[in-house]
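Session log. Operator J.P. requested a structure for one protein chain; no other inputs attached. Running the standard single-chain path with C-alpha cell output.
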Amino acid sequence: QVQLVESGGDTVQTGGSLRLSCAASRSSFNMNTMGWYRQVPGKQRELVARISINGRTIYPDPVKGRFTISRDDAKSTLYLQMNNLKPEDTGVYYCNKLLPGTTKPILTWGQGTQVTVSS
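Structure written below.
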C-alpha cells in the first residue's frame, strides 16, 4: 500500500507562495518525526524542514523565514507552506518519516510533487 502521497506543487513566479500537502497512513505518520525533502537534478535529496510529534520544527538556513512545516495528526497530513519562493527552490518535493534521532528517511518514497519557480 502507498504510504505517502504528496500534492500541491505548481509553477509560480519568483516571490509567490505554495502550500504542499502530504497524506500519510496513520501508522506512518502518528508518533513520528516527519520531514519534507526536495530533489534537484544533479544534486542530492535534501531535507528542507522537519517537525516532531510535539510540533517542534527545524529548518536549514536557505529556507528559514520562508517555509513553515506543520502537521495535522487527526488527518495524518503533513504540510509545507512556502512563501517568497525563489528559483533555487525549484525541485521535486517529497515527505517521509525520519528515523528517530536522525535525519534519515525510512519509508518508501512517494511520487513527490513538482515545484517550479520561474524568474
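Operator note: The chain is about 5% helix and 45% strand.
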